[in-house]
Amino acid sequence: MTIADKGPRTRPFEANWLARIGWLLLALYVVYAGAQLGFSWQRFSDGLGQGGKFIARMFPPNFTRWELLMSGIVESLQIAVLSTVVGIVISLPVGLLAARNLMPAWVTWPARGFIALCRSFHPIIVAILFVKAVGFGALAGILALIIASIGFISKLFAEAIEEISLKQVEAVRATGAGFTHILIMGVQPQVLPRFIGFAAYQLDSNLRNSTMVGIVGGGGIGATLFTAYQRFDYDFVLAMLIVIVAMIMVAEIVTGWARKVFQ
Amino acid sequence: MPVLVGQPPPAKSASADDGALVIRKLCKEYQPGVPVLKSIDLEVPGHGVTAVIGPSGTGKSTLIRCINRLVEPTSGQILFRGTDLAALRSSRELRAARRRIGMVFQEYNLVERLTVMENLLCGRLGYVPPWRAWLRLFPEADVAHAFHLLDAVGLGDFATRRADALSGGQRQRVGIARAIMQAPEIILADEPTSSLDPKTSVEIMELLSRLGGERNIPVIVNIHNVELAKRFAQRIVGMAGGEVVYAGPPEGLSDDILRRIYGGQSWLE
After folding, report:
1. Chain A partners of B100 at a C-beta cutoff of 8 Å?
2. Chain B residues touching A171 at Cβ < 8 A
3. For residues B4 and B233, what is the distance between their CA atoms, to the nearest angstrom?
4. Which pLDDT score, from 0 to 100, does residue A6 have?
5. Which parts of chain B have pLDDT scores under 50?
């Protein structure tokens, strides 16, 4: 029988009606939600004018209260660094316990549950909880960002451990090495560069978040920023924004350098 | 040559046989009712190279991994210098047994991001507490022995190179040196040449048989290349369908027996 004899073929690509209906529903909902919220072109063009005025009032940036600014920034930086360091120290064992290729299921499930719990709320909501619990100030912000860090990095740590080459681990195990040996010589070398990358990313993220927890009373520059907004001190706001951007950029350079060292 | 700490005395087998390793009725089923190894009976002499040949999927790797229990045997005995490895229950006993057994892998299985020296010292992990390994505070004798072995495998200048910077042949040399670092009483090599070119394969087999011979360490090697097996092994074990169908000297490996091991006909002509 030749190829031509096989008769008519089925279509090469099957239509996925379920997916098509899904996309259609999503599009309909977006239109519906937009209509519900009462957007209009009028409002948008008015808003642009307001925005223009707002930006105009920002210039020139006002650095006269630089002491207030710097004390806020320094506190934000401390919140970010402390919460990152403590968060990582806690995330290392939690991530290991959650790695399904090295741990039995009865260990990974509780660990994964704990991580999911830490991830479920936005840092601001956790910060509100901690402000209620331990009072206003940097401690509440630090605790909130520790929780956020654990939720984020433990999961990434666990995934990095799950992606290691088990051949290398097998070879170390075959020498008669114990579990701790295997972690030190078989697992750690494989995951270290990725861990450094995640830690750097988390520091970056905590720097940004640390400028925000202040809005709900968690310490740092956030409170000053929020007050300045409310008092229409837009030139001071711009000064703070410039310093925050500079801080993030410096952190980017430093973490990039750290990544290179541990390549 | 530096003396290694922790090297157990070469104990003589309690039983009458001269074999370093005696396997009796070894069975392995990954899924119940589907045996990969069907009651293997095998004796490995206390010196020289024993080559295990056979088609892919016939359980050669499983057999070799049952010996150091990287794979759990389903039933049977593995008598190694008088101890039944299959019967070891506590992880401490198992680790003590594993450090007496060196292993060489098809894909080298070096820890890629560690240096050559660190990979060699991995062979001493059975003797060194974790905190020392972590701080890289290995005993001086171990480090001296590692340098000596690097020279012996022709990689004297590579100690501080990272394993992922080496070629395949160089990696396998490191793999062999790591196994010898354990001061093992037997070496298991699982397809050590299958990822290498023909010339390097010969060099690796030469190295394995020379280092094993000098130290009087018996070597069991799984190998696909029948010619290499005949050239380097003093004893050939042919496996087919999870059973041993031939065990004897390389000269006894007739075409008839090869047909029994691999099946078919045309490939022999």
Report:
1. 176
2. 103, 105, 109-111, 122, 175, 178
3. 28
4. 64
5. 1-3, 7-17
